[in-house]
Q: What sequence folds into this?
């Protein structure tokens, strides 16, 4: 069955370190998204991609970067981790065809920056 | 940008009752709306969606109502069960250049008492 996976599921890192969170989907979806989820803020969009070599900034992109070298993967990099980036991160993907904008979500990565 | 919001952050119901979760949106250009359910420690899961050319859509035990006049969206869950306990998010696609993107509300916590 097609799926979307994230790794690691939990990560503790120190302030200033570079961290990369992996996202892999086997839906063959063109669109991929990264969100962070914090209490009181719901899901906020960090970066998104409509296809290979395409990346775009979301509403909370500062301090984060992504790259899309193939259809299946959209890794999220925190260039220099800050305590404010302690959060739960969700990756999602969606299809470009059809009338639905439904996004399929991964299980999330809980990141703690100490 | 404009975002989706919720009237009630928490809702407690008895098993067997019907639940209604409300959502207000402010962007009149939004053309697509979706409800997600998120259980503790998991990613959001699709419940039901509706396009702006409809005012009602039904699924299994769930109904989404859209009132474009007052920019209001609701999710009705019939015969609520303990397994329905979760956080429920509404989200919208704001049309135009927001292709494929969803803007999420803050969520409503639904607790179902046996």
A:
């Amino acid at each position: 069955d097609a799926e979307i996976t994230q790794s690691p599921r939990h990560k503790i890192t120190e302030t200033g370190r570079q961290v990369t969170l992996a996202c892999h989907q086997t839906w063959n979806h063109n669109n991929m998204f990264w969100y962070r989820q914090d209490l009181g803020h719901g899901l906020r969009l960090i970066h998104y991609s409509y296809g290979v070599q395409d990346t775009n900034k979301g509403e909370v992109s500062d301090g984060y970067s992504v790259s899309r070298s193939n259809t299946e993967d959209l890794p999220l990099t925190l260039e220099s981790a800050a305590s404010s980036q302690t959060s739960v991160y969700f990756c999602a993907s969606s299809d470009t065809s059809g009338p639905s904008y439904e996004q399929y979500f991964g299980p999330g990565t809980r990141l703690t920056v100490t | 940008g404009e975002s989706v919001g919720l009237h009630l952050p928490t809702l407690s119901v008895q098993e067997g009752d019907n639940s209604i979760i409300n959502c207000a949106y402010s962007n009149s250009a939004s053309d697509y709306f979706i409800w997600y359910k998120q259980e503790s420690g998991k990613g959001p899961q699709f419940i039901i969606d509706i396009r702006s050319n409809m005012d009602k859509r039904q699924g299994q035990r769930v109904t989404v109502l859209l009132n474009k006049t007052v920019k209001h969206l609701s999710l009705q869950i019939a015969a609520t069960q303990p397994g329905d306990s979760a956080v429920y998010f509404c989200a919208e696609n704001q049309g135009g250049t927001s292709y494929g993107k969803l803007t999420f509300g803050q969520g409503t916590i639904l607790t179902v008492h046996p």
User: Anything to note?
Assistant: Residues 24 and 73 of chain A are 5 Å apart (CA to CA). The radius of gyration of chain A is 13 Å. Chain A has a mean pLDDT of 95.
